[in-house]
# Entry
Amino acid sequence: MTEYPEKTCDIDRLIRHPKLVAAALEGRKTQQRRDGLYAYPDETFELEGVRFIVTAVEKQTLGDMSDRDAQAEGYPNLEFYRDLIIKMHPGMSWDDTHSVWVHTFTRVQE
# Structure
């Protein structure tokens, strides 16, 4: 996909939780899934003064996720990720057909 819809949120809101910020800074987190589009490829953002660049953005379903994807999110495996997401969002159930935007990023080497 080379054309993207309008962003639904500002890139600065892509990664907010302190544990996820720490995981990105440590290099354990290289992806963030969101219901909306928060960034376009080649956009940059900062976490605690460190710059990151979005290298890819794609639409994916939750059912497409693998253990490797969950690890790129900063979690040990898909089961842990799924259980945490459900716990964080009361009343939510895991729907394999639910579409999300996958934002892939890397630390900018300066």
